[in-house]
Amino acid sequence: MPDATCVFCRSPLSGCRSREHVFPVWLLDELGIADSPVAPTHFRPDGQVASSRLHLVKNLREGRVCVSCNSGWMSALETACKPLLLRLFSSNKSITALNSDERLLLARWATKTAFVLNSSSNFNCQVPAGHLFSLRRRARSLPGGTAVLAQQHSSTEPFSWVQSSSWILVGPQNRDEEKVKRLVDGAYKICLQFADLLLLVARWPRRSWRLCLWSGVHIPIWPIGEPWGYRVFDDEFPRDDSLKATVWFLGTLGAIHTSAITHKPFGA
């Protein structure tokens, strides 16, 4: 998106620019992380550092958001979701107990937060601009193909996040490197950890494939009624280590070709 237009509504920013916090101020205060230093780092596939920044958490902002979006639908979403998030952060409410309205609310908040994080970051796998525009317009849904998964754990860190373009693929084996690159083009995975709560916003764009979840770990929040694929892992989910849990929660989400889907969790 051009720097002179809002990333959500595409209106000109001249005279109405608002520097939106990636993570809302109330959340920073609740977790006590406003003045915590962070160093967002982008790694190449070979593990080498491509770029790195150093910020205080409170200085993580997206400058391409207009006042109308910031003080309008985004503010209303924060206000509506805050009580629910506070209960989920502390495990006073289980994600498995969410009703359909709460699932939609949580999914939209997670997606908004993930999109702002991605848009403002130095990560080269960007959420398509049309998805940010669509999120604002779709008050009762998410951009097409976007899914939100959740889990809770015994947190050892107040917050963390991971973005990735690396996927586990389950399906036809006749894939060369170029075919894999084309498959992954347009896909994204963004995992957010706030206290006990893990949220994963993901999109796999290929129609003959489905998201492949870690059976018993990835709990679908949105869309409701989606026919998911499942895979069983021998490893135990690291519920007592926030950093490991965040990385594993994101890294084990894959995509499965419809021809490989069975009537029971894959690998069971």
Overview of this protein structure:
With 268 residues, the protein is of the alpha+beta class. The chain has one domain. The chain is built from seven helices and 15 strands. The protein has a five-stranded antiparallel beta sheet with strand order 8-10-11-7-13, with helices on both faces. Strands 9-15-12-14 form a four-stranded mixed beta sheet, with no helix packed on it. The longest helix has 21 residues. The mean pLDDT is 86.
In brief:
With 268 residues, this protein is of the alpha+beta class. The chain contains 7 helices and 15 strands.
Helical element count?
7
The low-confidence runs, each spanning 5 or more residues with pLDDT under 50, are: none
Number of domains: 1
* N- to C-terminal distance: 44 Å
Strand order of the largest sheet: 8-10-11-7-13
General shape: globular
Secondary structure: helix percent: 25-40%
Mean pLDDT: 86
- Classify the secondary structure makeup into a structural class: alpha+beta
Main sheet record: 5 strands, antiparallel
Using only C-alpha atoms, the radius of gyration works out to: 18 Å
Per DSSP, what share of the residues sits in E-state strands of 2 or more residues? 25-35%
From N to C, what is the helix and strand string?
EHEEEEEHHHHEEEHEEEEEHE
DSSP, total strands: 15
